[in-house]
Specification:
The chain is an alpha/beta fold. The chain has 11 helices and 13 strands. Helix 7 packs across helix 8. The radius of gyration is 18 Å and the shape is globular. Bound molecules: flavin mononucleotide. The site of flavin mononucleotide has 27 residues, from strand 4, strand 6, strand 11 and helix 10.
């Protein structure tokens, strides 16, 4: 059963948060009934990295399936890997509604969900259930911090300790703009202090080493990029196995046309493509060819996927493009990601 563009158009008739809720519910129901959806994951340009086998290079970005409710269905739509979360240690409701806004004229979304999460207990139950049967591709677990937490850094180690046994890779997300003070954890000293205990928690959590990735904001200054690249690329036992570049932006490009462009929160979708790809390229330049970087931000067609590859992405993820284009985008992005550009 193909999840057609019509279903996506129907969902867009609902207010954005309701559409999101219904999409997750529909997918959760479809997976419970064993409906084949699009029969994925697509097998296009499979690759092995981080010690994992990816049936294709296109992943579902964090934030769609925050509580691990629809992982199997996301693979069935075609994704080559799925990242759940962000999960916070304790459940929290997030910000007051409305907190998600579509900007259709711009192919964009602004969200200020503020880490609404059912918490670690719920995620652990869901993930333990999933693991009873093998998944068809890698599962990432993206960790967040509680808004009212006194020790946000410790929240990540707690999350890593609890969820590492169920994850193929873990992500420390210090780049969401909707939790006050969170993004200051991207400073070099704070970052080392945060990553060392997470790394230790991962080493304690079992015999299999789980790769650890850091998700950064697309709003970094060159000095921040140098600092983070220094930590990611440093010799000795590595603190990080890869980067995800990047999250939503707090910037508001002058080109935005929608009346909702002034809403507070993180902007995603088409206007994020150029700035997030530039930051990706800056990281790749500083890091050399080896460290895996997942490119995410604004992928709306095959050309965008190819541009992420050209800037140095090893894999890509998307979310907002799915809202406007539907699951057909997954195949288009996977095919284009692997097609060399025509000679100039
Ligand atoms: C509604 C919404 C919620 C999101 N929630 C999270 C989240 O909880 N954790 C996270 O790391 N990123 C979150 N993101 C960011 C996405 O994972 C992605 O980095 C960003 O949207 C850019 O990609 P896109 O332009 O393809 O959407 C969210 C994005 C959206 C649109």
């Amino acid at each position: 059963m193909a999840l057609s563009g019509h279903a996506v158009s129907l969902l867009r008739l609902l207010p954005p948060e309701a559409a999101h809720r219904w999409a997750v519910r529909f997918l959760r129901g479809a997976q419970a009934l064993g409906l084949p959806l699009d029969g994925g994951p697509h097998r296009i340009a499979p690759r092995r990295l981080l010690g994992l086998d990816f049936p294709n290079p296109v992943g579902l970005a964090a934030g769609f399936d925050k509580d691990a409710d629809a992982v199997r269905a996301a693979f069935a739509l075609g994704f080559g890997f799925v990242e759940i979360g962000s999960v916070t240690p304790r459940p929290q409701p997030g910000n007051p509604r409305p907190r998600v806004f579509r900007l259709p004229e711009d192919g964009a979304v602004i969200n200020r969900y503020g880490f609404n999460s059912k918490g670690l207990d719920h995620a652990e139950r869901r993930l333990a259930g999933l693991r009873r049967r093998a998944l068809p591709g890698p599962l990432g677990v993206n960790l967040g911090a509680n808004g009212v937490s006194d020790d946000k850094a410790a929240d990540y180690a707690t999350g890593a300790r609890r969820l590492a046994p169920y994850a193929d890779y873990l992500v420390v997300n210090v780049s969401s703009p909707n939790t006050p003070g969170l993004r200051t954890l991207q400073d070099a000293a704070a970052l080392r202090g945060l990553l060392e205990p997470v790394r230790a928690a991962l080493e304690d959590s079992g015999p299999v080493a789980r790769p650890l990735l850091l998700k950064v904001a697309p709003d970094l200054e060159p000095a921040d990029i140098d600092d983070i690249a220094g930590i990611a690329g440093a010799g000795g036992p590595p603190l990080l196995d890869g980067l995800i570049v990047g999250n939503t932006t707090v910037a508001r490009p002058a080109s935005l046309r929608s009346a909702l462009a002034g809403e507070a929160g993180g902007l995603s979708g088409r206007p994020l493509m150029a700035p997030s790809t530039a930051i990706l390229g800056a990281f790749r330049e500083r890091l050399g060819p080896d460290l895996p970087i997942i490119g995410v931000g604004g992928i709306a067609d095959g050309q965008d996927a190819a541009a992420k590859r050209a800037a140095g992405a090893t894999l890509i993820q998307l979310y907002t493009g799915l809202i406007y284009r539907g699951p057909a985008l997954i195949r288009a992005a996977a095919e284009a990601f692997d097609t060399p550009p025509p000679p100039a």
